[in-house]
């Protein structure tokens, strides 16, 4: 080990503050899938990035709150899926309709598919 990834913060930076612990989602109160605004996207290219996905969704369907790629925590690369939360449930529905339609939806020369996001339980 070369010591470049010291966990005690002695990496030469002037940060005295530790990163706050990551909060887990409170699915009973904080999850919004029941609003029907969040679309689960699958079959993304590993080369696709969040900005491209967000830009495409806003251009084709309407404003979004976020586009978030699902990352493999161990390998630290995208899993090929994402979540996109639209500001309007009608825009989410249109995204799903187009992605499952005859013409399809493409990003980075790859057909992607959307469905309404659901709770894990």
Structure description:
It is a single chain. This protein has helices spanning 50-60, 89-99; strands spanning 38-42, 64-72, 77-86, 105-107, 110-116. By secondary structure, the chain is α+β, with helices and mostly antiparallel strands. A 5-stranded antiparallel beta sheet has the order 2-3-1-5-4. β4 and β5 (110-116) form a beta hairpin. The longest helix has 11 residues, at 50-60.
Q: What structural keywords apply?
A:
18% helix; 2 helices; 121 residues; alpha+beta; five-stranded antiparallel β-sheet; 5 strands; globular
Task: Say how many strands there are.
Answer: 5
Biggest β-sheet strands, sense, barrel: 5 strands, antiparallel
Task: Evaluate the radius of gyration.
Answer: 18 Å
Helical proportion?
10-25%
Distance between the termini: 41 Å
* Structural category: alpha+beta
* Secondary structure tally, helices: 2
Order of helices and strands: EHEEHEE
Q: Spatial order of the strands in the main sheet?
A: 2-3-1-5-4
Average pLDDT figure: 81
Shape: globular
Low-confidence stretches: 6-17, 19-30
**Beta strand %:** 25-35%
Topology:
Blueprint: E1 38-42, H1 50-60, E2 64-72, E3 77-86, H2 89-99, E4 105-107, E5 110-116
Antiparallel strand pairs: 1-3, 1-5, 2-3, 4-5
């Amino acid at each position: 080990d070369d010591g470049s990834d010291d966990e005690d913060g002695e990496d030469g930076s002037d940060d005295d503050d530790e990163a706050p612990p990551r909060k887990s989602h409170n699915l009973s109160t904080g999850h919004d899938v029941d609003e029907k605004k969040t679309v689960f996207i699958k079959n993304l290219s590993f080369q696709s990035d969040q900005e491209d996905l967000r830009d495409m969704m806003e251009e084709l369907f309407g404003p979004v709150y976020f586009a978030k790629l699902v990352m493999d925590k161990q390998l630290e690369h995208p899993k090929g899926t994402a979540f996109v939360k639209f500001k309007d449930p009608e825009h989410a529905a249109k995204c799903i309709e187009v992605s499952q339609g005859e013409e399809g939806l493409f990003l980075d020369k790859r057909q992607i598919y959307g469905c309404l996001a659901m709770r894990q339980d």
